[in-house]
Design goal:
Layout (H helix, E strand, L loop, with lengths): L1 H11 L4 H4 L3 H11 L8 E3 L10 H9 L17 H14 L14 E5 L3 H19 L4 E8 L4 H8 L2 E6 L10 H12 L4 E8 L12 H14 L2 E5 L15 H10 L6 H4 L6 E6 L1 H4 L7 E5 L1 H14 L5 H11 L2 H29 L6 E2 L6 E5 L2 H4 L4 H13 L1 E3 L12 E5 L4 H14 L22
Parallel strand pairs: 1-11, 3-4, 3-5, 5-6, 6-7
Antiparallel strand pairs: 2-8, 7-8, 9-10, 10-12
Helix pairs in contact: 6-13, 9-10, 15-18
Protein name: Aminotransferase
Keywords: Aminotransferase, Transferase
Organism: Mycobacterium angelicum
Length: 464
């Protein structure tokens, strides 16, 4: 609890009034401090912080690790030195059941070792896709198809110039993609010929629902982008952040199997699609060390070259020491053991919150989304907040003013197709218990008769 409180204060405090405007959480925290932190130290469960959920063995490994001089300079390639790339290729081949794959000529994969978070690779990919869209489809608007709720893909693609079209996920279909509904949206998007699908995103172990998508989802998006001359991002961020008792759905293998049909002599390959996909696999989520930003980037050799070109344009290449450390850690038996333990840990955390919200605060089963993957769960906002414009963010703000606890609102819930907030479960169980204790003490209930009352709650400290 103490380490969470101290780290939350470090990350949320910002003494610059101008800089605070970039972060809703820092704005809220500043007001909370100004009011004297009436409900106790602020607790944070928004963007995937792991301030006290980091693997103890990994932390010991980091503190004992010794670097040499070669890891301290700029790197020549933004997508990793060869030794790290070779190691991660072996890991991807092994963990995605690709050991026996014998690709036809031109269909072998390459694997980059990125040490700057997958968001940077996605920016590189977006710029490659935008350049090709302008060249191959002049006069039309490039569209990026993005699931919602989801991680902030919108922030990347919209910034690069794509029109973002959202593909909704709802409880009506068990929080899984409804491909008929998605296809109707796509057909409507391209119907008049002024727009084309230049990018699509598949997120098989889905953030934030935790649900696993069937491989038919990636197959649909792969065939769609092939026909449209677009690109496909396979975001495998939570491939191993998963309940180990549930089989993982392996979309990377399914996609490569599609390319390998008939020994590579098929329409998908003929479309040039093999050079228009990227799979991202970060390790910060697997070991609760997001600040390291190390990831495997799997794609074709040609596409990796394009990504590397964009990387040179945008930045010098640093953080090779992080890649050195992560590759060494991934080779240990402790890393494999922690992967299993952390999957069970998240499963227990989700069950704790689900049970408490149902038993003590009136939540129905339909108001909670708990899948076997990711470090998140979804919680429907109380019915009284669903009637108001901007109710999701309003609930997030009011809940913080009433309890000092922060959750994620519209950042992940673009276009708000469903009235849910996202709770991150990476903190120690004592921290999650304190969240629930404060919520119950403040009167949080699915059928609460009226809203908390905004900033006025800062003048009424919680009584336990």
């Amino acid at each position: 609890m103490r380490s969470h409180i101290e780290a939350a204060a470090d990350h949320l405090r910002n003494d610059s009034e101008e800089m605070r405007q970039c972060s809703p959480e820092q704005l809220l925290y500043h007001e909370y401090l100004q009011a004297g932190a009436p409900h106790g130290p602020a607790l944070y469960a928004v963007k995937g912080e792991h301030w006290n959920g980091v693997s103890p063995k990994f932390l010991e490994f980091v503190n004992a690790f010794q670097f040499d001089r070669a890891t301290m300079g700029y790197a020549e390639s933004g997508y990793g030195i060869q030794r790290h790339r070779n190691f991660l290729r072996g890991l991807i081949v092994g963990e995605h059941d690709l050991t026996g794959r014998e690709p036809a000529a031109g269909l072998d994969i390459d694997v980059g070792c990125l040490a700057m978070t997958t968001r940077m690779a996605m920016y590189d990919m977006a710029k490659v896709a935008m350049r090709q869209a302008k060249q191959n489809f002049p006069g039309t608007t490039p569209v990026a198809l993005v699931p919602t709720p989801a991680w902030d893909y919108r922030g990347i693609f919209k910034d690069v110039g794509f029109e973002v079209v959202f593909l909704p996920l709802t409880p009506k279909n068990g929080w899984l993609p409804d491909l008929e509904a998605w296809d109707a949206i796509v057909r409507d998007t391209v119907a008049d010929g002024t727009r084309h699908v230049a990018m699509a995103v598949t997120n098989p172990q889905h953030n934030p629902t935790g649900m696993q998508w069937p491989v038919t989802v990636t197959q649909y998006l792969l065939e769609l982008t092939a026909r449209q001359g677009g690109f496909l991002l396979l975001d495998d961020a939570y491939y191993c952040v998963h309940d180990p008792r549930v089989a993982r759905v392996n979309h990377l293998k399914a996609m490569l199997d599609a390319f390998d049909r008939n020994d590579g002599d098929n329409e998908l390959v003929a479309s040039g699609m093999f050079d228009r996909w990227v799979a991202t696999r970060p390790f910060g989520k697997q070991f609760s060390c997001n600040t390291m930003g190390v990831a495997a980037i799997t794609t074709s050799p040609k596409m990796l070259r394009h990504l590397s070109r964009e990387s040179w344009i945008n930045r010098y290449h640093t953080n090779t020491h992080n890649a050195e450390l992560m590759c060494a850690w991934l080779a240990t038996p402790e890393a494999a053991a922690w992967t299993i333990e952390t999957g069970l840990f998240y499963t227990r955390q989700k069950e704790l919150v689900r049970t408490r919200l149902k038993a003590r605060m009136g939540w129905p089963d339909t108001g909670l989304c708990v899948g076997p993957s990711t470090s998140y769960m979804l919680i429907e906002i109380p019915k009284v907040y669903q009637r108001a414009e901007g109710g999701i963010d309003c609930f997030r703000d009011d809940l913080f003013f009433a309890t000092g606890t922060l959750v994620s609102a519209s950042l992940f819930n673009q276009t708000a197709p469903v009235p849910f907030v996202r709770l991150h479960l990476g903190s120690h169980p004592d921290v999650i218990e304190e969240f629930l204790r404060r919520w119950q003490a403040a009167g949080l209930h699915y059928d609460m008769p009226k809203p908390f009352g905004g900033k006025a709650a800062l003048a009424r400290p919680l009584v336990f």
